[in-house]
Structure formats: structure tokens, C-alpha cells
From TrEMBL:
Protein name per Swiss-Prot or TrEMBL: Large ribosomal subunit protein uL10
Disordered, as annotated region: 190-212
Superkingdom per UniProt: Bacteria
GO molecular function: large ribosomal subunit rRNA binding; structural constituent of ribosome
Similarity annotation: Belongs to the universal ribosomal protein uL10 family.
Gene that specifies this protein: rplJ
Source organism of the structure: Candidatus Planktophila sulfonica
Subunit structure: Part of the ribosomal stalk of the 50S ribosomal subunit. The N-terminus interacts with L11 and the large rRNA to form the base of the stalk. The C-terminus forms an elongated spine to which L12 dimers bind in a sequential fashion forming a multimeric L10(L12)X complex.
Known function: Forms part of the ribosomal stalk, playing a central role in the interaction of the ribosome with GTP-bound translation factors.
UniProt KW Membrane keyword: no
Length: 212
């Protein structure tokens, strides 16, 4: 490769490293041209899968601030630069490997950190962002529906309470007052005088009759 071509290749890969949401490194030894096309198709338009030269890739990674060890760039290498959902891309890459064991996944860069092959496999088993968002939306929808039902129940209860007739107030017992008329007044006074005379009269002493 001529020097200008090398410089252009390094510049392009440097930009790919910088703009990628994730980067997965693979070894494609033994894969046919047809298999490579199938792999690119399975990864989708948002993932750029490129066969690369190890030396130039290491320079580009360094320019982008990515530190790649030499063992990651050994043998015939190809790099998947992901621009879309990193988990979806990892899952598609893993699924392709199941059907094409010759593809070797060496690891990669995810969220700015290096991940091993084992960590890559765990990442591929996660649910995608779209699925997680759908679940979150479903949970929120369920919570909102429950809140709406609760508010409706409270509103109906309040309307029922406000529309119910008021309970009758118990009437207080009527106490009949005794009215002393002018005619009854003299009689009462007479009774009082008789009672007073009886009190003032001397009590007769009992005469003791001697026994015969």
C-alpha cells in the first residue's frame, strides 16, 4: 500500500474509532467471501465491518486514544465499528459465530473500556435498548393506568358522598312546663298554712294506765 493510501486508511480508521459506540475485533481466518458478505448483511447498515491491516489499525487506535494490545491484532483481522445499538451488533455477531465457528471474536471496546471475549458474550446476551425502553414504557403505562383508576374511584366516591341526602337531625325532647295559674295559687298557700299549724300544735302525752 502506497504511503498516501496508508495515511488515508489510518485517518479513516481513526475517525471510525472516535465515532463508534462500540468496536469489536475479530479474526476471520477461514471465512469465505460469501460468508463475509453474509456477516456484513447480518450486522446491518449501522455497523461497518472492515478487513484491516494490524499495524495501521494500531496506529489509528492510538490516534483515537484507544489502547489495543498486540494480541488483539494478530492474524487476519477485521473490525466491526458500531454506529448504532452496540448490544444488537454484539448479538448479531455472536449469532453469526454460532453458525460459522471459524470466526474468532477477540473482544473489543465498549463505552470507552476494553472488554474481553467473555465480557463480549455477556454483553451479547443482554436485551437491546429498544426492548428495555419498551418494557419501561409498558411499566410506566401500567402505573399511569393504575393511578388513573384510583383517581376515578376517588372522584366517584366523592361525588356519591356529595350527592347523598343529609341525615335527619334528631328532634330534642319537649319538656312540658307546669304553669301555675292564678286560681291554683291560693290553694297552694292554704296547704302551706295548714302544714305550719300542724307543726306548731303540742303533742298530747299518752296516759299510762296502771295494771290492775
Amino acid at each position: 500500500m502506497a504511503r498516501p493510501d496508508k495515511a488515508a486508511a489510518v485517518a479513516e480508521m481513526t475517525e471510525d474509532f472516535k465515532s463508534a459506540t462500540a468496536t469489536y475485533l475479530t479474526e476471520y481466518r477461514g471465512l469465505t467471501v460469501t460468508s463475509m458478505k453474509q456477516l456484513r448483511r447480518s450486522l446491518g447498515a449501522e455497523t461497518k465491518y472492515s478487513v484491516v491491516k494490524n499495524t495501521l489499525t494500531k496506529i489509528a487506535a492510538k490516534n483515537a486514544g484507544v489502547d489495543l494490545s498486540d494480541d488483539l491484532l494478530a492474524g487476519p483481522s477485521a473490525v466491526a465499528f458500531v454506529k448504532g445499538d452496540a448490544i444488537d451488533a454484539a448479538r448479531n455477531l455472536k449469532n453469526f459465530q454460532k453458525e460459522n465457528p471459524l470466526l474468532v471474536i477477540k473482544g473489543g471496546i465498549y463505552e470507552g473500556k476494553f472488554i474481553t471475549t467473555a465480557e463480549f458474550m455477556k454483553l451479547a446476551d443482554l436485551e437491546s435498548r429498544e426492548v428495555l425502553l419498551a418494557k419501561l414504557a409498558g411499566a410506566m403505562k401500567g402505573s399511569l393506568a393504575k393511578a388513573a383508576r384510583t383517581l376515578d374511584a376517588l372522584r366517584i366516591k366523592r361525588e356519591a358522598e356529595e350527592g347523598a341526602p343529609a341525615a335527619p337531625v334528631a328532634a330534642a325532647p319537649v319538656v312540658e312546663e307546669t304553669v301555675v295559674t292564678e286560681e291554683a295559687a291560693p290553694a297552694a298557700e292554704a296547704v302551706a298554712e295548714v302544714a305550719a299549724e300542724a307543726t306548731d300544735a303540742p303533742v298530747a302525752e299518752a296516759t299510762e294506765t296502771p295494771a290492775e
